[in-house]
Amino acid sequence: MFISFISCDEEPIPDSFSFGVENEFKINGDYHSIDNSLNFTITDVNDSRCPSDVVCIWAGKVDVKIKVESPVPGTITLSTYDNPVDTIGNYSFKITDVSPYPISTKTIKLEDYVVLLKIEKLIN
Question: Of 20, 57, 59, 104, which one's alpha carbon is 20 to 30 angstroms from that of 49?
C-alpha cells in the first residue's frame, strides 16, 4: 500500500541564483550565486506603498536593505521610488517588484515579502 501526502504550502525559494535574470528573494535568507562569487542577505523591507483599496495622493515606495557578505562586504538600500539600481563591488542589483501589494485591511509580515531582483555581474 502506498500513501502520498500533498502539501498546499508554497514551494521554498532556492538559496542560489543566476546572474542576468530575475530571481525571488525573501528577508533573512542567505543567498549565493550559482558560482558562489556573491553572497548576500535581505535584512529589511520597509513598505510605505499606498494600499490597493485606498486612494492616496502619493503611490508610496518600498525600500529593501541588502547586506552583502562577499566578495566585498557592504550594505545597499534599493528603493522603488528613487534608487531602483545600485552597485557594490562588481555587482549591480536592480529591484523589479516587491509582493504582496498592501491592502488596508491586512498586515503583511516581513517574512511574507518576496523581493524580485535582477543581479548582474559587471565586467571590469
Answer: 20
Strand partners of residue 65? 44, 77
Three-state SS for 105?
A: coil
pLDDT < 70 positions in the chain: 1-13, 124
- 13 and 42 Cβ atoms separated by less than 8 Å: no
The domain made up of 16-121 has a fold known as Tick-borne Encephalitis virus Glycoprotein; domain 1 (2.60.98)
DSSP-derived secondary structure letter, 100? S
- Taking the whole predicted model, whether its pTM rises above 0.90 is answered as no
* 62-70, strands of its sheet edge to edge: 16-17, 30-33, 39-47, 62-70, 74-79
Q: What tens digit of pLDDT does each residue of 5-33 get?
A: 444 455 666 789 999 999 999 999 999 99
